[in-house]
Design brief:
It is a single chain. The protein is mostly helical and 99 residues long. It contains 5 helices and no strands. Helix 2 packs antiparallel against helix 3. The radius of gyration is 19 Å and the shape is elongated. The chain starts with a helix and ends in a 5-residue tail after the last helix.
């Protein structure tokens, strides 16, 4: 998938349609699209390897799939809200340690 970027860079900026390999970007929420672009730019300018860029795109594709699946996203959100994380102090006290 990373090979699509340099090969289609001009088209990504000039065409309204995304290449088929990157069509999942349209599934991202607008805020996630902006975050993807920021992370991709930082990774590219930071000298990330092709494998690192591929991993970044794979992670964002998974996010896009969740953004598109409203039911799964709602389940995750309900689970996140119902989970109470202990503070570090509480956790350390429970383990018999002091902060």
């Amino acid at each position: 998938m990373v090979a699509v970027l340099p090969r289609n860079a001009e088209r990504l900026y000039s065409d309204d349609a995304l290449p088929d390999e990157l069509g999942w970007i349209a599934w991202l929420t607008p805020s996630h699209q902006r975050l993807l672009l920021g992370e991709l730019y930082a990774a590219w300018k930071g000298g990330s390897t092709e494998a690192e860029l591929a991993e970044l795109l794979d992670a964002w594709q998974a996010t896009a799939e969740l953004d598109q699946d409203h039911e799964a996203r709602e389940r995750l959100e309900r689970n996140r809200k119902s989970t109470r994380w202990a503070s570090v102090d509480e956790w350390m006290q429970a383990k018999g340690r002091t902060a």
